[in-house]
């Protein structure tokens, strides 16, 4: 059975390059992607270059565990070091935010807690799924964004162009 999942993508090392690569690989695995705008934000939790962030929605039959494993592999294929510090620069960060309306802590916490705390996750979630209800707090993402204290984190939309044709590059990675 298909489940709609939402994935956070972020990068602050060659972010344009790595977001495009991540999108191409997600397109290769899932086909059609629902894309939020791309937002630039200051690093949270450490001093570093600004991040580019976005949220992607896909439909999948993969389990939560299979998705997490796939995302780790995509990160590693894009230069993310295994065991790297949480609050550090990164080429590509893929985090599963929602898996349908599941609330769980195993194998990962869902819905992901940072949806409620980080503007770079909440704003694109509200953009993609405004009327969707957060399964733990029972409030729509648009309402959560409207009520979010926007003085906590600086965030702004930036131009970004990606086309699914770039997914052919990811297909090449997996056919070698």
From TrEMBL:
Residues 86-97 form the 7,8-dihydro-6-hydroxymethylpterin-pyrophosphokinase domain. Its EC number is 2.7.6.3. GO terms for molecular function: 2-amino-4-hydroxy-6-hydroxymethyldihydropteridine diphosphokinase activity; ATP binding; kinase activity. GO terms for biological process: folic acid biosynthetic process; tetrahydrofolate biosynthetic process. Pfam families: HPPK. Gene3D superfamilies: 7,8-Dihydro-6-hydroxymethylpterin-pyrophosphokinase HPPK. Pathway: Cofactor biosynthesis; tetrahydrofolate biosynthesis; 2-amino-4-hydroxy-6-hydroxymethyl-7,8-dihydropteridine diphosphate from 7,8-dihydroneopterin triphosphate: step 4/4. It is an enzyme of class 2 (transferase). This is 2-amino-4-hydroxy-6-hydroxymethyldihydropteridine diphosphokinase.
């Amino acid at each position: 059975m298909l489940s709609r999942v939402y994935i956070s993508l972020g990068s602050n090392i060659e972010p344009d390059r790595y977001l495009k690569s991540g999108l191409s690989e997600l397109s290769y695995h899932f086909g059609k992607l629902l894309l939020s705008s791309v937002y630039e934000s200051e690093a949270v939790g450490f001093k570093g270059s600004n991040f580019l962030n976005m949220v992607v929605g896909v439909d999948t039959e993969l389990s939560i565990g299979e998705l997490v494993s796939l995302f780790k592999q995509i990160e590693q294929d894009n230069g993310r070091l295994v065991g790297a510090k949480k609050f550090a620069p990164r080429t590509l960060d893929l985090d599963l935010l929602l898996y349908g309306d599941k609330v769980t802590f195993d194998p990962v916490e869902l819905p992901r807690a940072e949806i409620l705390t980080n503007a770079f996750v909440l704003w694109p979630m509200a953009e993609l799924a405004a009327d969707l209800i957060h399964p733990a707090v029972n409030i729509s993402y648009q309402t959560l964004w409207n009520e979010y204290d926007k003085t906590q984190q600086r965030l702004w939309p930036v131009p970004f162009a990606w086309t699914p044709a770039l997914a052919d590059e990811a297909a090449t990675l997996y056919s070698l």
